[in-house]
């Protein structure tokens, strides 16, 4: 499907809801808020549908206050819902069971379920915001103008690029990623301040939690796999039930000789598993064995009705096969 056909649907629609994956990260939010700002600028009524509340470190973005967790399903008269950065219909941060209008699915996850009436899924994009950027330009936004509209959009897009590429270090980064970054930087946005907002903004308890997790990291499978575990107890003690742990798992991958980092988190829904790969191990395949998905080097899944130990040994068994050890 083409960007033009998405633009046509937007122009045709009266009321547009935007949503993203649950527990939204910088790309889910940046790709959505940039598009929301652009859609409104052409005079369309658009709003956020999200059961999640904006994470503190992303609250500097324009319109972020609208991600308040109060609109759980499409308002009446909504004739289009655009879902960004979400591969699985079950992971959308919106309740769509009673909605019978159109859905457009804009994403970059390889394991995307193509649940939309239009599916624009491009796994070569480092971030979903690379697609938002194309669509925003198609909607007529001119970055040469440098008004608050373009600057707000630029900050959201830059945030998406930085967060989904590990600050431009992952192998998903392409020339296009840098070209888009270059174009939005040209608007005079303060990249250093954005980095500080994103990363130098940790809750004190989060840093202490990191210490506890790192103190107990284990190595498995010929020291090629780093395993980290977080029990519900420890999350409750630190009052961090919904904490984002993507930065913690990256530290595991930083260990010399480690090829895969594994983080298991006990939650209401089951054991949440995150996987990261340094080089050639396709962790998406491992996640898919447990009904999850993601990218080759970053994936996740949930294992239900079992304890941390069992979830861990299941995963190590699957990983052992995948890594041919
Ligand atoms: Mn993404």
From TrEMBL:
Name of the featured protein: Phosphoesterase RecJ domain-containing protein
Pfam families named among the record's database cross-references: DHH, DHHA1
GO terms assigned for molecular function: nucleic acid binding
Recorded superkingdom: Bacteria
PANTHER family: BIFUNCTIONAL OLIGORIBONUCLEASE AND PAP PHOSPHATASE NRNA
DHHA1 domain boundaries: 225-324
Positions of the DDH domain: 16-158
Species classification: Bacteria, Bacillati, Bacillota, Clostridia, Eubacteriales
């Amino acid at each position: 499907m083409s960007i033009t056909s998405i633009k046509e649907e937007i122009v045709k629609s009266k009321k547009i809801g935007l949503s993203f994956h649950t527990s939204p990260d910088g790309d889910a939010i940046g790709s959505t808020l940039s598009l929301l700002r652009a859609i409104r600028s052409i005079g369309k009524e658009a709003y956020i549908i999200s059961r999640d509340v904006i994470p503190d470190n992303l609250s500097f973005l324009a319109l972020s206050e609208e991600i308040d967790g109060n609109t759980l399903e499409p308002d009446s008269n909504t004739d289009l819902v655009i879902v960004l950065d979400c591969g699985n219909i079950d992971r959308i941060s919106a309740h769509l069971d009673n909605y019978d209008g159109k859905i457009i699915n804009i994403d970059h996850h390889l394991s995307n379920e193509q649940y939309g009436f239009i599916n624009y899924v491009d796994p070569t994009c480092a971030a979903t915001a690379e697609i938002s950027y194309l669509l925003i330009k198609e909607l007529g936004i001119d970055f040469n103008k440098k008004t608050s509209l373009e600057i707000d959009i630029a900050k959201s897009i830059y945030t998406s690029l930085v967060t989904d590429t590990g600050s431009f270090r992952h192998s998903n980064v392409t020339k296009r990623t840098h070209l888009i970054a270059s174009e939005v930087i040209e608007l005079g946005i303060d990249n250093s301040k954005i980095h500080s907002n994103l990363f130098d903004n940790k809750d004190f308890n989060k840093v202490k939690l990191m210490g506890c997790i790192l103190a107990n990291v284990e190595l498995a499978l010929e020291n090629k796999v780093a395993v980290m575990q977080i029990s519900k107890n420890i999350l409750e003690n630190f009052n961090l039930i919904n904490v984002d742990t993507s930065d913690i798992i990256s530290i595991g991958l930083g260990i010399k000789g480690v090829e895969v980092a594994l983080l298991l988190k006990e939650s209401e829904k089951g054991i949440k598993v995150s996987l990261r790969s340094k080089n050639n191990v396709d962790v998406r395949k491992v996640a898919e064995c447990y009904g999850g998905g993601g990218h080759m080097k970053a994936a996740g899944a949930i294992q239900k009705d079992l304890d941390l130990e069992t979830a861990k040994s299941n995963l190590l068994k699957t990983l052992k096969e995948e890594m041919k050890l």
